[in-house]
Amino acid sequence: MVKKLFVGSLPWKLDDNSLKGIFEPFGAVVSAKVVKDRESGRSRGFGFVEFENEADAEKAIQGLNESELEGRKITVKEAMAK
Question: Angle 5-8-11 (CA atoms, 0-180°, nearest 5)?
Fold first, then answer.
């Protein structure tokens, strides 16, 4: 089952491919998306990453939550349902 993670406090210049590359060492990434402002097209500083399975998602949370990425301390946690 696919597991979706929320990633907050992302560096502003990070794109979808870069985000995916950061998470791939932890397992099979289904998708990675940096959320962008509709009007300006700039990053809003957060995104979502989906893993193929829950175990890989948990490894990513343990390995990356509170870690530093380009001078910013990122937050990685399970995404809440809409």
Answer: 125
Task: Give the mean pLDDT per block of 10 residues along the chain (82 residues).
Answer: 96 97 98 97 97 97 97 97 81
Contacts of 7 (CB under 8 A, 6+ apart): 19, 46, 47, 48, 49, 64, 74, 75, 76
Nearest to 22 by CA among 68, 54, 77, 80: 68
> What CATH number belongs to 3-50+58-78?
3.30.70.330
Strands 29-36 and 3-8: unpaired
The pTM of this model reads 0.96
